[in-house]
Give the backbone structure.
Amino acid sequence: MIGVGVGPFNLSLAALADGVPGLTAAFYDQRAAFHWHPGLLVEGATLQVPFLADLVTLVDPASPWTFLNWLKSRERLFPFYFAERFHIHRAEYDAYCRWVAESLPSTHFGQQVDAVRWNAARGCFEVDHTHVDAHGQAEALARSYARNLVLGVGTEPYVPEPLRPLAETPTVPVVHSAHYLGERERLLAAEHVTVVGSGQSGAEVFLDLLRNRPPGRERITWITRSPAFAPMEYSKLGLEHFTPDYTRYFHGLAEPVRDRLLPAQWQLYKGIDAETIAAVHDELYRRTLDGGWPDAVLTPGVSVRTAGRLGTQSIELHLEHADQSTRTRLTTSAVVLATGYRERPLDRLLGPLDTLLRRDDAGRPLVDSRHRLRLDRSVTGRIYVQNAERHTHGVGTPDLGLAAWRSAVVLNDLTAALTGTEHYPLPARTAFTTFGLTGGPQGPGPGGGAAGQVPTRTAELRHG
């Protein structure tokens, strides 16, 4: 197996694959070392999932690659125990993942994968890759072969079209939140800053700017297309949308239904955690104690129509309010785009396999229940995807809490083909909620089955 990319998801797979009998694996990443969203490691920022959602624990809590074992290796178990933290610092998660990446023999950094082809004569995939130095300069070319591929190429910062020309000009202070820490000093020194986007990243950037600008002279504007600065859905039953049960249910829906559902579920993954919202309000309130109001404007329901330079020191944003159908202009000194991420297109890597890929009505790759791309029958190897299948597997696709489960599903599919057995036993049921009237691990009737009947598709569900 060759993995392309070493982010948290392929790192989870590498950790769980370590020691699986009969499986040889190598994971390539063009970066010099593992780093997880380094531009957003804002001081005090935490993960939005519990520490149990590490690389392996929810599948194999006895693994040597758990977060708790990393703490033990750093002699920090007792401090963590007394801290009573369920949600760990983001910088801590980054350090934990780097420890795993540096310790595993299967992870190889400084390896840029250039192309993937199917070699029918050899019955395997050819992977062309380039060894690059710390500056990204090519040093050597290589080719590897594998029966199976796992694509974990991740996401890339999304910049809306109206702001793209400005963001691509290095001298203009229009930056994506992914690069916030590197631009923080310049942003704090700007006369006026506008934050665009109301997800978790937007809230953290706004809060950090607010805390570090003088009271009464904050000069920050926060705008978003969303109808509100809304909290993320974090009720216990609501979180069951991030279980394997819901993933299976979503995958079984018709394509038009899946496409309709995803945008409507934005608060499951695009909202702000309640603690951050409270911190924003507390900081704003604190700045009213002297009787004044902070110089901060927070406006939802606003989109950026166009943008451009205004002289040499200012940026002009042309805004439109959705409900009022009104337009205005905003002059600002700097812009932070907390506009999220988009999946990197697989076509860049899989160009030579284009005629062998099966696609849906929208031209997207079809992905089966075991996270395999659907390929032409002539291809006997398998290509798995990680965090590129939200259109087929739903809102849990980019969630760290499902990383270990998905890795286990992939490994079970491989080991079943190799040995006839699955390496990681997985539970048939993971949620109290019954999603749908058919096809789930339990039905709405007495005894778990609809009208007392035996549940269907049990064998398939046990295979993930």
